[in-house]
Design goal:
Blueprint: H1 7-40, E1 43-49, E2 52-58, E3 63-67, E4 71-76, E5 79-85, H2 91-94, E6 104-107, E7 112-118
Antiparallel strand pairs: 1-2, 1-7, 3-4, 4-5, 6-7
Length: 132
Amino acid sequence: MGKGIRKPDIVVIAVIAAMAAALSALFTLYDTHRIAAEENGDKRLIITKDGDITGSYALDEDILINIGEANVCEIKDGHAYMKSADCPDQSCVRSHPISDTGENIVCLPNKVVLKIETDKAPAEDVPDAVTY
């Protein structure tokens, strides 16, 4: 067995540190562009059913929205949530209300998606998804 830190160990540590720095920069860039897009554009609730957009609503208006015969969504105080659904698991109804760009609520049995977007398109160099 060797003693101390060897040259290959230093290379591995340097590669890991470089990857961590790159990921940190990417997350910072993404957040900066997301915040700028939210400040420069109005946030909207986009509703899709079976992959087709069925509606687009400003989050600053309080409204009750019927989505087909199975789901009811409500926008209230700048937040959107699924008020009711006829699906068996009710996970969409129990989901936390959404209000930030990129958040969504999905009702899989009824193929309904609620998603928050901004009017302004994000810059092209911004990743379309980030996992924390």
